[in-house]
Design a protein that fits this description.
232 residues, alpha+beta, six-stranded antiparallel beta sheet, 6 helices, 6 strands, 19% strand
C-alpha cells in the first residue's frame, strides 16, 4: 500500500475520471488568480497547518475497519462553462485550500490531506484502493505513521489558481496549474478543483484532470477523461 500523499496525485493525474462536459475554459467574467503563485519553488511543507482528521474516522471511511464504508461515492456532474465568476473572497478561499492541500502532500501528512477533503472525495479516490496489497492493520499503520516531508526539489509546485467560479448548485470550481515531480515526465498539469464551501473553510470535493486535446479536424477543444474508477 502506498501512502496517501504518494498515491493521491498519481491517482488523480493517471486515472482520475469524472462526468464533465467541456465547452470552454473560462467562466463568465473569469476571475484571475487570487494571488501570485510561487512558481519557482514547491509549496512549502510548513504551510500545512490544518488540524488533522481523526485516524479512526479516515480508516472507517475508506474501508480499513470492519463495517467501514468501502464503496466510492458517486460524482455530481460538473456542468459545462460558462460559469458565474466567484467574488474575491471565494477566490481567495479556493486558492488557500488548494495551496494548503499541496503543502500537505509535500509534507507527506496523510491525516491533514484528508482534513482538506470531503468524506465523499476520500471515498471516491481511496475506498477499496489502499489495502489491496497488505492487511488492514498494516495499511492503518502506514496511513497514520509520522510524516516524512519531501525534499525541496521533489515538492509539488503550484503555478496558478484561476477562473474561480460558482456553479448553480453552490459548489465552487477553479483551475489549478501544478507541476508534480513524482510523475514522469515532469511537466505541467491543469486540475479542475471542485470545492464544497458549506463549512468553515472550502474543502476539495472532486478533482478533474483537465487537458486541451486537438480533434482530428477543426479548432482544438477542451477534453476530459472517460468515466471510471481510479486505480493505484
Amino acid at each position: 500500500m502506498r501512502r496517501l500523499s504518494s498515491l493521491i496525485l498519481v491517482l488523480v493525474l493517471g486515472a482520475l475520471t469524472a462526468p464533465f462536459i467541456a465547452a470552454g475554459v473560462a467562466a463568465q467574467d473569469a476571475t484571475p488568480a487570487a494571488g501570485p503563485a510561487r512558481a519557482e519553488r514547491g509549496v512549502p511543507a510548513e504551510d500545512c497547518q490544518v488540524a488533522p482528521r481523526v485516524a479512526d474516522d479516515v480508516f472507517a471511511l475508506i474501508g480499513l475497519v470492519e463495517g467501514g464504508q468501502a464503496s466510492p461515492a458517486e460524482r455530481t456532474p460538473v456542468p459545462a462553462p460558462p460559469w458565474t465568476a466567484a467574488d474575491d473572497e471565494a477566490a481567495a478561499a479556493a486558492e488557500a485550500t488548494a495551496r494548503e492541500w499541496l503543502a500537505c502532500i509535500n509534507a507527506d501528512d496523510n491525516l491533514r490531506i484528508a482534513a482538506l477533503m470531503t468524506d465523499a472525495a476520500l471515498t471516491r479516490f481511496f475506498a477499496g484502493a489502499l489495502a489491496a496489497e497488505e492487511q488492514r492493520a498494516d495499511a492503518q499503520a502506514r496511513l497514520a505513521e509520522e510524516p516524512a516531508p519531501r525534499a525541496e526539489e521533489e515538492r509539488v509546485r503550484l503555478l496558478s489558481v484561476s477562473d474561480v467560479a460558482v456553479l448553480d448548485d453552490g459548489r465552487i470550481v477553479a483551475l489549478a496549474v501544478i507541476n508534480e515531480p513524482a510523475l514522469r515526465p515532469r511537466g505541467q498539469e491543469t486540475l479542475l478543483l471542485v470545492f464544497d464551501p458549506a463549512g468553515a473553510r472550502f474543502l476539495i470535493d472532486d478533482i478533474v484532470q483537465f487537458s486541451i486535446v486537438p480533434p482530428r479536424a477543426g479548432t482544438p477543444v477542451a477534453g476530459s477523461p472517460v468515466a471510471g474508477t481510479p486505480q493505484p
